User: What shape does this take?
Amino acid sequence: MPAPRTIPFDYPAPKAGAAAALPGAGLPWLDALRAEGRQLSADGLPGTRMEAWKYTSLAPLAALAFPPPGEPVAEAEPGAGAFDTIGGPALAFVNGRLDARHSRLDTLPAGLRVRGLAQALSDDPAQVEGLIGDTVPNGDPMAAFNAAFAADGCIVETAPGAVVDEPLRLRFAAAPGSGPLAWHPRVVVRLGAGSRLALIESHEGLAGEATWSNPLVDVGIGAGAALSHVKLQAEGAGAYHTALTRTALAADARYESHLLALGARLARHEIHIRFDGEGARCLLHGGYMARGSQHVDNTTVIDHRVPHCESREVYKGVLDDTARGVFQGRIVVHRDAQKTDGHQLNRTLLLSPKAEIDTKPELEIYADDVKCSHGATAGEPEADQLFYLRSRGLDLRTARALIVEGFMNELLEAVGHEGARAVLLAQVAAWIGEARP
Assistant: This one.
């Protein structure tokens, strides 16, 4: 019997009182957006007959029972965060809700404006409507859940020409809760023309906590502006993470994405890049490390719509035990996007004969004056490298660990912020140190 296109999912609708407590309830455009999201999400979760989800089954997520969205969440302590040693402004979300106790917004740098979603909907709902829109993006099934049930989030804006020296940190933490918990944060980032910002996004959790995090991050980068976006996903072994990041680049804009995915039972990181102005450039670097029965999916779409734009994409992973990785990367070059320069690479180390990687790099080109390439490799650590290290007196386990560390560190050295880079390198070393003899 063929797999279903959708998986039935009995996700509870908000109770009457809880629905009224969602931010912006009563705004006609937002009520309509949430209704559209509920209608689309009523079909269930995407199944493996959908091409974009053919390698990732959400059936285990559908088996969980979640409380209705909008229900009060007890205050909880999230513990220390991976990036706490980095200064600067910070927003903390605990069990899906903005937590003022662990946020730092009292001294925002000049040119940076940061607001919680509820505050923005109260202060200027018309502006938020212009930022969020009134339809579910491309009818995406996970974006539909976000549109329907988002109970919190934030809006980040930079003024034209502003150069923000310290990074802005967004932390999403799971703290001890009663039963499975789900949250659908909506994050909107808008950079004014010529501005500069570093954004550090982290998702952290506790072992054994059954959680579902379904964030939608919507980024718009103005002409000549630049955003460096670092993301760490290190949730607990019982967590599910389905993230969508959409970035639109104006003329001469720059976007760098540096992802390190380590945690969760199942994680999917989907990134869509759209070039709207000539001379723009994006860099996507993704690292993933999984063991046990973890499943990590990296799906990207880079949409070259205009001429003279450049994209670079490198994803590297390490899989052990029976872990499974997925890389689906598609570069689309439209007919008018001449002089496009796009390159894509996926490399995976398999530390166990039972580990698996499904890789599908794609080029879809309709222009005739372009430079585009893609490639993928997967295999065990090279025998020559192991022999060299063992001939210098290292045991097999130490030799393999050094190879893995060098393989991942090469990717992370491109992270521009020194403090963020150090944190990610430490996370890689800790993952390697947890390996069994």
